[in-house]
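User: I'm writing a tutorial on reading structure tokens. Could you give me a worked example: one chain, its sequence, then its tokens, then a sentence or two explaining what the tokens reveal?
Assistant: Sure. Here is the example chain.
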Amino acid sequence: MPPQAGLCETCRHAQQLKHPRGGGGYWRCLLAETDPRFERYPRLPVIECAGHEREPKEKRG
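And here are its predicted structure tokens:
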């Protein structure tokens, strides 16, 4: 997946998904499920986000 996702790459509320037909993937914001301020599939790169919470390093990888 392209590394240009911005804040999503380090956010605990972001889910990286692969496109079902191959090719590039996309990012899903899990906060959008309960908070209408957030887009389900935000336009990338995300450079500012009120809901961004850095995921602990041990969970990334």
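What the tokens reveal: The chain has one domain: 7-59. Residues 7-59 form one domain.
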